[in-house]
Amino acid sequence: MKKLLIAVPLIAIVGGAAAPFVIGSKVESAAKQYIELGNQQMEKALAANPQLSEAKFELDSYEKGYLNAKATGKVTFTANLNLNGAKTYTIPFTSDVKHGPYLGDAGFGASSIVTRPDLSGFDLPESINEDTIIMSTIIGFAGDMKNNAVIAPISFENDGANLDFAGAVINSVSPDAKNRSTFTGDAAIQQLKITPSNGEAFVLKPFTIDMEGKGEADLSSGTYSVSSSAIEGVIGDDEGSFSLQKMDAKGTYKDAEGTDVFSVGSAEVSFSDIEIKSENLPEAIKLPKLSFSSAVEQNSGTDFDIHAKYSATLDPSLMQMMRSPVDVQTAEIGIKLKGFSIEVMEQYQALIEQLVEAGDQGQAAAEAIQGKALGIAQLLVKNASSANLEIHAKSTEGDLDADVDVGFKPGLELSETELMGLMGAPDPSRLLAILVGRGDVSLAKGITDKAGVTPMIQMMAADFVTLDGETFKSDVKITDGKLLINGNPLPMMGGM
């Protein structure tokens, strides 16, 4: 019994002493897996970005000790950042690894990793060095991951101008280190001050950001959301300022079927309570809400529809600044592009890459128009692609509503020569002959009355508008090479 009682604490002591070495071996194995997983995720994330390519992580060395280890490696990527051709960048990094179970101030866990990227290979001020950005990661025993990135204060002068940035701290937590697309996080951005060589300083005050993401480890699908605190900036003492009380962004993403070049999904960004003040303005300009949204949808695994919408809630102060006789309260513009095939999307991506990679943008644009752009146009015609435009505005004087569809006739196939001929044709009816379309437009008479144009509309556009009660209405059609408004052909140069 005595031997057993002695053996139990001895086993515990030996096991505890061996724990850092055992955990260290697992951390080394996991680090190599994370590098490979990171490469897979980065390759997928950059597939749809024409300005970044061939990015990869490499682990050059991993020197493992009993309680710690040191890893060195690099991140290499090819980028087209200034439209003057592609350039390859390499960012070396050094990681100090501490093996658990006890990690010091961090408490208990499997490992602690502190990484310092070396930015000396970039054309940056001397004040930016290997201690400017420090990234810390703690991996728990359950495989969870806590990340922390600290950007140190930066201050430098360039041609008489000064930049002072007080730094930033970014935190995130992932329940599973192998799936970083599922996380919660926050960021604290400190004051940024830019002082030009002549003129008043611009100061962006501190603000915070909250982030959340839920998705698959291979980035095949997921959701994300971002929100901020109030963001404020000032110029000089009293020259001007701007503020917004909140920024919200959210979206979804999912792999498109039949291609790995892009994803489908949605995105929305909104800004609340924007206010702009200036000594050159009689009063502050306010914008209660401004939002942008977009979506890419896939139909039956073949065609794609692309949506974009811009909307705003307006304030009388903006109308006064624009000297508008009409008090517009809300405005919305929506654009839908329908029937874009996978081939069109891939060729468009290739066209953008060609333009970005070229050093001579003028020559590249000419070659692209002669090549890929015409090929894309052929596919759009063949697929009977179409576009929809919607405009809605509400004012105290009435509403404006427009809904117009225009598309290529089904069953058409045009050669590059025929397309070039249409583009250079002086007669618009030749282009209208390959299109079909419909639409309706309504405009409150109260708006035209307030703007003082009602008599002119009734006199000069009588054939193209109908006054229905207190609303002007127009019906639009494109048929047989003619643009008809309320059944009357619109006169156009070239003879319609």
UniProtKB/TrEMBL annotation:
<protein>
    <recommendedName>
        <fullName>DUF945 domain-containing protein</fullName>
    </recommendedName>
</protein>
<dbReference type="Pfam" id="PF06097">
    <property type="entry name" value="DUF945"/>
</dbReference>
<dbReference type="InterPro" id="IPR010352">
    <property type="entry name" value="DUF945"/>
</dbReference>
